[in-house]
Amino acid sequence: MTTATTTTKTMVMRRMMVMMMETMRMTMGVMRREGVMATVRMGTGVMRREMTMVMGRRPAGMAKVTTALWLKVMLVMMLVMARATGSTFPSYVHIGALFIPHMEQEYEAFRFGIYLHNSDPNMTMAPFQLQSRVDHLHSANSFDITNAFCSQFTRGVYAIFGFYDKHSVHTLTSFCGALHVSLLTPSHPADGPMQFVLQLRPPVSGALLGVLGRANASRLLYFFDTHRGLSVLQTVLEAAAHNGWQVSAVNVEENGAEEALRTAFTSIDSAHDPRYVVLDCEPAVTQKTITQIINIGKNVKGYHYILANLGFSDMSLETLQRGGANVTGFQIVDYTKPMVQKFMQRWKQLDGREFRGSHDGPFKYTSALSYDAVLVLAEAFRYLRTRRTDILRRGVAGDCLANPAVPWNQGIEIEQALKHVRVSGLTQNIQFDGFGRRTNYSILVMEMKETGPKQTGFYTESMGLKMPTDNVVEKELTESNNHTYVVSTIMEAPYVMLRKNSELLEGNERYEGYCVDLALEIARHVNIKYHLAIVPDSKYGEKNSESGTWNGIVGELIYGKADLAVAPLTITLVREEVIDFSKPFMSLGISIMIKKPQKSKPGVFSFLDPLAYEIWMCIVFAYIGVSVVLFLVSRFSPYEWRPDDSAATFDDGGGLGGRDLGASIANGGGLSLVGSVYGGAGGAGMAGTAFVGTVSTEQPNEFGIFNSLWFSLGAFMRQGCDISPRSLSGRIVGGVWWFFTLIIISSYTANLAAFLTVERMVSPIESAEDLAKQTEIAYGTLEAGSTKEFFRRSKIAVYDKMWSYMKSAEPSVFVKTTAEGVARVRKSKGKYAYLLESTMNEYIEQRKPCDTMKVGGNLDSKGYGIATPKGSSFRNSVNLAVLKLNEQGLLDKLKNKWWYDKGECGSNTGDSKDKTSALSLSNVAGVFYILVGGLGLAMLVALVEFCCKSRAEAKRLKLAFGEALRSEGRLSLTGSLGENGRMLGADFPRALHALPVMRHGHSVTDLS
């Protein structure tokens, strides 16, 4: 501990030392003359000095005289010292201090109080120094408390400052009562009267009962912490029995889990508003319980929380109040007092390296009580000094384990001095009654407002609870209108985007987008000032299953960091339990985004696409079947046989000069001609010619198998044919075939234009079912959002199967942001599908590079809503604003503006439309291929026919095959070869140019 000696005190001490030295010099002269050995001990609380002088021996009588003289001198010296010091009061007052764990700030406040006292230059206020003997306990059990207390008592402390809990209170107070050592404590007041214990903390039960009585609370939920004892709970239960209140008490140590708290709230949820909840816990435990209350959604309008401790300003209560709940509490430190403000200014300027706990969070009320303890101790010992009370220990060490216990003689005087203190400290007036309890204290009644903690009243022992009756509603309304509210949103195109020159702008002007415009319209209707705040973690909001906390925008609202949320936030059941939503400002559903497949180019035989391949096969079979049926009915029907009888007689009056010619000509028609030529004897010419031709009679049928196939093909191709059926059965076959081909050709022609002019995109996925039943294409959702929650909670088999795949897929198919999901779709080459809201899907489809597309319908139906904390006063105003904007058509205008008017992919109009409707060579290439192929096939068949005919003629006429080929070739080129264009044999009479034919009924006669 640092000590300082003032100039005034130094001068007094020097004067005292001079007087002592003069007296010593006189005494030593006498003693030398008397020849006596004397030992002189001089001392004060500041220094000690011992001098030993050995003189010669003198007679006994003379020694007695000298001794008496020496005693007189010493008495004079002591009187001088007493006159110089004022009394037998110690210059250093040793104070013991016991600190249990987690009391770092309280320890630094105690140290700071001692430092301020010892460095006070005013001798009247600080005529002595305070010196602390501190023990930091690792635990507050009875064994550690006993060791620490005995150590303090043995070292001769005059009083002890310390903390206790329910485990150590009886041990510590019993030692104090037995050994008469005063204990000054800021801990919670213990039950029952205790000797030598002074309670710095006033009881809160009176103020609590005053608030409950004023509220007429007929039913309340009471959370308590047994570390504070049960005195307040007992007082409340007694008042409840007297007033007919229904109290449900819950120990937060044993039932602090969220589910237990949720169950506890059922006892008051059926009550009418407001529902009162008392938190009788220390600020740290209260803060933890408040967090759990927020997590279960009970920080809403209709609940009134009363915090039964004296540190209302020590806790963060904005999150509880922003949900709509009323919050009332108590404060022992009045921060409006000049003394407190001056202290806080010096406290904030402390060096954190020397006072390490001085900057650990807000200044706690227990730290203020620790500082006030130093003021009380200094005032008490100052009072003892003015009364010249002898409290010197004189080297007498106490023994706390003596049996029986030996109390300290001066302990009662110190206790009475402490109870006599009346001083003004950080916790206002400090005064004790005969039992060591605070009296004449004042407690501030606080409420949490939108602008922060506000004092609404006070409580004193004499006057009770006093609440001001002034109407402050108008003032609060003015403060509310001047308040700038925080609107939480998320950076997501097209809802919120940075402007191109955002670095040159400030505030809300830096952003643009659908939600930016919507927030502006909402603010105009609600008449508030607002500030757009981008959520730090870029998440919409998901509940952590382990800790129960929320992240994202939902967490910003729950924990009081935002007053409003204007974002593409989906309305879901789990979110509705903890925050409020307005009417939907946009309807949507979950959709599938895939990479846009390449447009399929038409194939070579794309002209076959208008009809399925099955139809083409059926047409082929129908064609063959009709041809066969036509052939059969033509064979069996007698009307298809056409009779053809012919006879010819050739008569020539000339002769052949006595030569006979016989010829037999057979043709393919069955006609046989036999000619006899007779020449007259000695005649130069033909005297007479006679030719008789006989023709065999047959009935030909035009519909052979090949002609039937030709007829069917001509009808199918909408072309004519030289032959047609004559029989009724044949005409029936032809008629139904013509009708069949009419319908088929018409249908084909109708679809042909669409198939040839439209370039189709073949998508591998068309629905969620397609995704679920395949494994080649991965699919996922946003890591924290309503889409993921939809699949996680869905009981539909398809969606449940998809969720099972997504949660177990490696690598993970979930993405942190929508931009990351879109980028993954674009880079995956069609191997990843992203599940997201349809509105976002449609927007991205309109953005360059225009390579994504929405497939299938929406998987569900939901909406985006504007979110507010539970019970917020904005909810009704925002609802009305959304409905009004919808009726005015402004919501549709905003969507068209940001989705389509600013789209980058455009639509198929203008030149692009003309280009897509024009046929290219690839569209009809197959037709040309068939044409070329048909021509080539015809040439090949003609060549085969030519060779076959030449071979047949060569055999018939007994010619070489090469000669026959040449003859047939000349025939094909010139159309004539030999007599009458025919290839004749060598034995055929070349002079024969004509054969006489007998008429029918004549015969050929011999001309001789």
Describe the structure.
It is found in: Postsynaptic cell membrane. This is Glutamate receptor 4-like isoform X1. It is a multi-pass membrane protein. It holds the Pfam family Lig_chan. This protein is α/β, with parallel strands linked by helices and 1008 residues long. It has 6 domains: 7-85, no CATH class; 92-200 and 365-431, Rossmann fold, CATH 3.40.50; 205-331 and 450-472, Response regulator (Rossmann fold); 483-589 and 864-901, Periplasmic binding protein-like II (D-Maltodextrin-Binding Protein, domain 2, 3-Layer(aba) Sandwich); 591-601 and 761-860, Periplasmic binding protein-like II (D-Maltodextrin-Binding Protein, domain 2, 3-Layer(aba) Sandwich); 921-977. 41% of the residues lie in helices and 17% in strands. The strands form 10 sheets. It has an 8-stranded mixed sheet, sandwiched between helices. Helix 15 (514-526) packs across helix 26 and helix 29 (921-956) crosses helix 30 (961-974). It is rod-shaped. The chain starts with 6 loop residues before the first helix and ends in a 34-residue tail after the last helix. Mean pLDDT is 77; it is low at 1-15, 33-65, 82-87, 469-478, 645-696, 908-915 and 979-1008.
